[in-house]
Amino acid sequence: MLQKILWLLTASFALPALALDGEVIVHDPSTIVFHDGRYYTYGTGAGLPILTSEDGWTWKRAGSLMSAVPGGKAGPEVLAKGGNNTWAPDVIKVGDQFFVYYSAPGTQPKSAIGLLVCPSLSPEAPGYKCEDRGPVVWSDGVEDSNAIDPGVLLDPDGRLWLVYGSYFGYIRLVELDPKTGLRRDPNRKPVNVAINSEAAILLHREGWYYLLVTHGSCCQGANSTYNIRMGRSRKVTGPYLDNMGVDMIEGGGKLFAASRGRHIGPGHFGLLDLGDGVQKFSLHYEADLDRGGVSVLDIRPLLWRDGWPVAGDNLVAGAYSIESARTGTVLELAVQGSPVGGFRQRRGGPPGSGIVASGPPTSGPPPEGAPFVPQIGPPIADQEPAQVAANWPTVTGVRLAPAMLQAQQKWIIAPVAGVGGYPGAPYFRITVAGTERSLTATQGGELEASSFTGAPEQLWRIDQLVDGTYRISPKSVPDSTATWALSAVGSSTPTLSKFDPASDRQRWLLGAP
Question: Does the record carry Magnesium as a key word (predicted)?
């Protein structure tokens, strides 16, 4: 019965299996940036096509970035050192301007990486335009490098770094001038940091530099073998070693993300740090089989374990228990619960043994001196709401209680279509299985369970934090503009409060009920 209920709910609120909605076809997406109320990413294609989103969930195409450049194409110096293609850009904000680095290959491995400097990324901004500052690095078709796939990092010391390269040679590192975006010292030889890869990018966290690269082959649809691998170093110049101690310049690389299910060939990592312990990453899949095998954008949670980044998975519709990471108790309707399998009486064992006589009662007492033989009974079926919900009130509060697999503790989490979302995910409804009793934020930041209407206070944002727990927040609370999160005040009282990334009160575990 529960499986049928789940199917009906997910069918009623069906969304694409991919974590994003709208126009998401793109190849080699840049790091996603947020500017003037919108998210932006750029991809490979004529003039660097733009994808933009107001909420990070529903995306649309918005022309091309080169339309903001006088002449609508790369400048003559870039064309001379590379070619008239525009591939695989990356973007970063430094100060009050954006640096957009892009690949301009000719006949590979002759290529250049050009730089556009844009005061604004919004095509609607007054005087919207970008300045072409020419080539930053290039390859001549003879050397052991291919100047494509730029990845840029501004480190904690304010130094700006660029990695680039592909399978034609090494992945290389150069330092940039954060004032101009160009090479700090054009005469200094680039540092080789990896081989047998492309689409490199750097991260920095807690004293470590991480180099993420894309291995495998691209551009063959569902036959592509792209996967993302990584190494780390205490110095930005390397050496970058994987978890086995193998240098990436010798072919090392710890696996970060690979093909799985109907999404083939992940590549082109980009960090999206949303603050308060929520990090996500963008990428593209070479082929999304649910969308005809095209290359598409995705956003997924980024977790951290044992000093390494871990690729998280977007939440899918299903039946869950919602457990407080702080108290170990689970969210439930505030109703009188009934034990799973009914009330049972212990017989035959010593006090506290838990031994229960099962099976049909005997016609009389056992013979004097005969030992008691406990029996294992058949499995106890899951408790269905129809068995116990007859006396549940229409509107109820919610509370925290020990996990007992009771019907009021089973929640269906399902996406809601047509109400927008946030980076990488839609809004969800959280409903007791087999009912319309949905978790609802009330005035003053309290909670109840009431019939689902689709109101903003019944729509929930569920972000996975970097430690793997979840933050659960209502889209809005009546008569409030504050940002709230589900919070465990004690072992039995849930409420809403401001999220504190240093506390366990707003951290939740989602598991099988």
Answer: no
